[in-house]
């Protein structure tokens, strides 16, 4: 019931006025922001990552300096805006809801960077070489440290202030606004979602390589990260006792059968 700050002196940096809301009693971040708490926080974390990766001192800690550091920044930002577009896969138009917190957060960041303008991020619908709908997203690396940094800085400040002051109405209005997926405005995101689904690739699989002796040397045998590659890796690894292995696997399968409906 006691304040740990002076309400008359703590100023909201977004309004210039004294803070007018705060967490009360047993209220917490999750209880106040409820349904958007998870994705909102993921978005804030991603924005912190984008912002801090621009710090040369931070990059040098990980051994990245000069042009190498600039390449890391570019790939990091480009990966984020691309992920924002691909995140549309996890939006359900029928219920107007998002099914994945991280993907919603990345879409919000894409919207923020598109809104920044000045040619920072480009998004256009194109026709692929196969004649099917496709999309192209671009990022002007020369504007990341200026236009991009300022856009993320402003947005991150808003996210932080709404969270710190428990301003649910303001935070939800901001976040829901950027999360909206529609067919109006500068970009037809509903149509782009269909393109994303059309261009969806099979999920890559972790496939273990094998080794084999060839004369006096040992060769590394690698496989594609697909179901076919996984099967090939498995069968070639156990060529000598394949029949016994198959029998053992079938027996194990029979034992597990009662556990499955």
From TrEMBL:
List membrane-spanning regions: none
Does the keyword Metal-binding belong to this entry? yes
Question: Which Gene Ontology terms of cellular component type are present?
Answer: cytoplasm
Alphabetized UniProt keyword annotations: Hydrolase, Metal-binding
Cited InterPro entries: Peptidase_M49
Q: Name one GO molecular function term.
A: metal ion binding
Q: Do you know which Pfam families this protein is assigned to?
A: Peptidase_M49
Q: Which PANTHER family match?
A: DIPEPTIDYL PEPTIDASE 3 (PTHR23422:SF11), DIPEPTIDYL PEPTIDASE III-RELATED (PTHR23422)
Name of the protein in question:
Dipeptidyl peptidase 3 isoform X1
- Origin organism is Lates japonicus (Japanese lates)
Taxonomic placement: Eukaryota, Metazoa, Chordata, Craniata, Vertebrata
